[in-house]
Every structure is written in structure tokens, then in C-alpha cells.
Amino acid sequence: xxxxxxxxxxxxxxxxxIMAGLLYFEHGTQKLLNFPIPGPGALNTLQMASGLLxxxxxxxxxLGLFTRPVAFVLxxxxxxxxxxxxxxxxxxxxxxxxxxxxxxxxxxxxxxxxGAGKYALDNRKG
Length: 126
Prior knowledge:
mainly alpha, about 70% helix, globular
């Protein structure tokens, strides 16, 4: 049974890339556009930069455009966010609310190393 699943690896990897990008994009829309729920309010420079990375970077990941460099930058963004915002709140991720930041960091690191995969604009010819 598991041998048959191997054929689905390209599709499941594309689904991971697209869903990670959509979830990341949603964080940007919340911060910058107050959608789907109101964001944190007035943003300082760091929060504005973070929102732009989430909005633009998330969209590029979904589209699979400039995937490797964007994923690398977003991985670093999440590592930075974890140590700046979450780690000071406590040692354990479940305590400091940094679970998503860690997961995004390593998913984007995987995408940076593996590339866009299937269903990506990076694969277009010409």
C-alpha cells in the first residue's frame, strides 16, 4: 500500500507548499488589510515589514515563483520572529505560542532546499 503513495509525493509536496503559502499570506492580510479578522491595529515599522513579507512572500510561495530565495528569506523571518517575539515569553514553544513560527521556519527551509515542485510558475518554459 505505501509503495503506491510514492507516486503521490510530487502532488503532496505541492499541496504542502501551496497551503503553507496560503496560511502565511493570511497572516499578512490580517496585519495589513484587517482580513479575515481585524489585525493588531497601528503597526510599527517591524510589524509593517513582517506583514509585507507575509503578504508578498506567501503569494509568491503559493504561485511557486522565485520559490527558493523567497522560502529562504521567509524561513529566516520566522526564526527571527520566534526569537524576538516568542522565546522571551518562555522556553517551551507550547508555553510561548511559537509553535507556528517554528513549523513555518522549517517548512520554508524544506521548500528552499527542494525547490518549487509541481504546479509552480518557476517550472514554466521560456
